[in-house]
């Protein structure tokens, strides 16, 4: 989000604290609207305002409202809405204001889901928003979480997929041509196995000899045949034919969350 050279504010853990903070800051003179910098006065990229309709207190980073302290309720009944934005600066700002009660891992590093919010030791997928609530002992997430589907390899299905796509028939066809002295490989200079996508591997394997010729044509004569076949087989294993999904409402450790994201990334 437009750089990271920004002074960060202190903790603001409730609507009462947010309202008090807003009221203590004088608006910048000469502006057509009420602009109140939350941290360094010379930097208005991080601001705080009161919504005139709802009286909610809103923290804005550049042009994104990232935190909204609800005026409804009293004391620990006041809820706080967070709007995910995938940037390291947003995460640092959230930590400065709500940590250690809330930790955000909002990143576009992972294809999906990359917007994870940790509350009370649980890591939730919060793709659109996260509503948290301060409690006398600990905090909790009360809304915004969506299930996380993590694919895992079903080896039985994997073996069946190799049969259904015709991998073993292709392998026999290829090895027969090699024994007859008719090497179907055409690539001469590439020193690594061809990097197949799952969709490519399944498509060409299921097309029969026409597709098999396409596969062989992309194999390198320099690379050991065993490695080329392993690359093709691995691509089939990564296809949706070989995976079932496990659904998680949340993870209970950062390591568990990372492992799940890496698995999604590998299969995706």
Overview of the molecule:
This protein has eight helices and eleven strands. The protein is an alpha+beta fold and 268 residues long. It folds into two domains: 15-145, no CATH class; 152-240, no CATH class. The strands form three sheets. Strands 1-2-3-4-8-9 form a six-stranded antiparallel beta sheet, covered by helices on one side. A three-stranded antiparallel beta sheet has the order 5-6-7. Strands 10-11 form a two-stranded antiparallel sheet. Helix 5 packs across helix 6 and helix 5 (198-206) packs across helix 7 (225-237). The two termini are 26 Å apart. The mean pLDDT is 89.
SSE layout and pairing:
Blueprint: H1 15-24, E1 46-50, E2 57-61, E3 64-69, E4 80-82, H2 88-98, E5 102-106, E6 115-119, E7 122-125, E8 130-134, E9 139-143, E10 148-153, H3 155-165, H4 167-179, H5 198-206, H6 209-217, H7 225-237, E11 243-248, H8 254-267
Antiparallel strand pairs: 1-2, 2-3, 3-4, 4-8, 5-6, 6-7, 8-9, 10-11
Helix pairs in contact: 5-6, 5-7
């Amino acid at each position: 989000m437009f750089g990271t050279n920004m002074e960060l504010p202190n903790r603001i853990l409730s609507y009462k604290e947010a309202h008090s903070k807003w009221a203590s800051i004088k608006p910048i003179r000469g502006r057509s609207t009420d602009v109140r910098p939350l941290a360094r006065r010379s930097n208005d990229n991080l601001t705080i305002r009161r919504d005139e309709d709802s009286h909610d207190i809103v923290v804005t980073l550049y042009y994104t409202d990232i935190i909204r302290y609800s005026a409804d309720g009293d004391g620990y009944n006041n809820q706080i809405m967070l709007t995910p934005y995938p940037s390291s600066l947003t995460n640092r700002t959230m930590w400065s204001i709500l940590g250690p009660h809330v930790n955000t891992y909002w990143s576009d590093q992972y294809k999906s889901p990359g917007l994870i919010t940790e509350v009370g030791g649980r890591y939730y997928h919060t793709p659109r928003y996260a509503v948290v609530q301060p409690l006398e002992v600990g905090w909790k997430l009360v809304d915004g979480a969506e299930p996380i589907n993590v694919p895992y390899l079903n080896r039985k299905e994997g073996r069946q997929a190799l049969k259904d796509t015709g991998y073993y028939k292709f392998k026999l066809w290829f090895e027969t041509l090699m024994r007859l002295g008719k090497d179907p490989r055409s690539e001469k200079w590439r020193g690594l196995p061809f990097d197949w996508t799952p969709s490519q591997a399944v498509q060409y394997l299921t097309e029969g000899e026409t597709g098999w010729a396409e596969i062989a044509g992309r194999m390198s004569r320099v690379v050991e045949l065993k490695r080329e076949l392993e690359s093709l087989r691995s691509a089939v294993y990564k296809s949706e034919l070989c995976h079932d999904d496990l659904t998680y409402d949340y993870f209970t450790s950062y390591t568990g969350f990372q492992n799940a994201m890496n698995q999604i990334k590998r299969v995706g």
